[in-house]
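Attaching the record inline, Q. Sequence:
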Amino acid sequence: MGLAADPARRALLAALVPFALARDCEVVASGVETEDELAALQSCGVRLGQGFLLGLPAPAPAAVRPALT
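Structure, as predicted:
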């Protein structure tokens, strides 16, 4: 059952996001795969995310890759 259809997950999200944002933390959603999940996250104030709905996996641009030593 996904986020949008699970009341317990929605309640947890609705409690944790404002808590984190009030403490100047940024919330990043991981594994966003459906429009319903995206809408649920946005309605709770989540502004950043990653997942197949938002873009396919790809290598990071060289400018943001850490140097291996």
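The chain has one domain: 3-57. The chain has a mean pLDDT of 87.

More tomorrow.
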